[in-house]
């Protein structure tokens, strides 16, 4: 547990993005589109829209026990998990670590960093080898300028998913009040 606190402090002191260390997978546009199309996240989109979105994304892989990001880091990307499991961990006031969520295929993580420059609220750790689509903020901004109507649809999807998360979190919180 104390080791986790040291990692969090190191993340704050050295805000270098860990995204540069992720293994990139060489995939064609069609392969990326097929990967996205298989997720529940893409359910509301047509094939041509999926193909347009993945032009701005890359496929990455990290091994079991690796961090997608650490609490306290300032980075600007979200991940859409294609396979594997990610645990979201939060350090408590006493330096202990709490598991706050488990995410799997078709779920996103890190989406708030597309919209703000705040440090990561929690850490995201691969419990199994994971493969994911990476969407960097600069690519999302370019996507929004080049394809504004589709970007509105993506933002609407993100807002709906964030709303669902907020409702679940509120329900859990209510049990503790």
Query: Helix and strand string, N-terminal first?
Result: HEHHEEEEEEEEHH
Unreliable residue stretches: 10-17
CATH H-level superfamily: Jelly Rolls
CATH topological fold name: Jelly Rolls
* CATH architecture group name: Sandwich
> The biggest beta sheet, please?
5 strands, antiparallel
The pLDDT mean sits at 87
Classified by CATH, the class is Mainly Beta
Our estimate of the beta-strand percent is: 15-25%
Map the helices and strands.
Elements: H1 2-13, E1 23-25, H2 29-37, H3 47-54, E2 58-62, E3 67-69, E4 77-83, E5 86-91, E6 97-103, E7 108-109, E8 123-126, E9 130-136, H4 137-146, H5 148-176
Antiparallel strand pairs: 1-2, 2-9, 3-8, 4-7, 4-9, 5-6, 5-8
Helix pairs in contact: 2-3, 4-5
Would you mind describing this structure in some detail?
With 177 residues, the protein is α+β, with helices and mostly antiparallel strands. The protein has a single domain (2-136), classed as Jelly Rolls. Helices cover 38% and strands 25% of the residues. The chain contains 5 helices and 9 strands, in the order αβααββββββββαα. The protein has helices at residues 2-13, 29-37, 47-54, 137-146, 148-176; strands at residues 23-25, 58-62, 67-69, 77-83, 86-91, 97-103, 108-109, 123-126, 130-136. The strands form 2 sheets. The protein has a 5-stranded antiparallel β-sheet. The protein has a 4-stranded antiparallel β-sheet with strand order 3-8-5-6, with no helix packed on it. A hairpin with a 5-residue loop joins strand 5 (86-91) and strand 6. Helix 4 packs across helix 5. It is globular and about 50 Å long. The model is unreliable at 10-17 (pLDDT under 50).
């Amino acid at each position: 547990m104390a080791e986790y606190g040291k990692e969090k402090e190191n993340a704050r002191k050295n805000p270098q993005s860990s995204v540069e260390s992720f293994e990139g997978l060489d995939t064609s546009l069609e392969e990326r589109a097929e990967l996205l199309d298989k997720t529940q996240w893409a359910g509301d989109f047509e094939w041509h829209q999926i193909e347009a979105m993945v032009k701005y994304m890359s496929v990455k892989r990290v091994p079991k026990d690796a961090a997608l990001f650490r609490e306290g880091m300032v980075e600007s990307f979200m991940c859409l998990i294609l396979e594997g499991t990610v645990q979201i961990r939060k350090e408590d006031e006493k330096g202990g670590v709490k598991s706050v969520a488990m995410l799997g295929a078709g779920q996103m993580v890190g989406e708030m960093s597309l919209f703000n420059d705040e440090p990561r609220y929690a850490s995201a750790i691969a419990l199994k080898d994971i493969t994911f689509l990476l969407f960097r903020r600069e690519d999302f901004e370019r996507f929004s300028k080049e394809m504004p109507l589709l970007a509105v649809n993506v933002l609407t999807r993100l807002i709906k998913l964030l709303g669902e998360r907020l409702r679940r979190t509120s329900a859990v919180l209510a049990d503790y009040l």
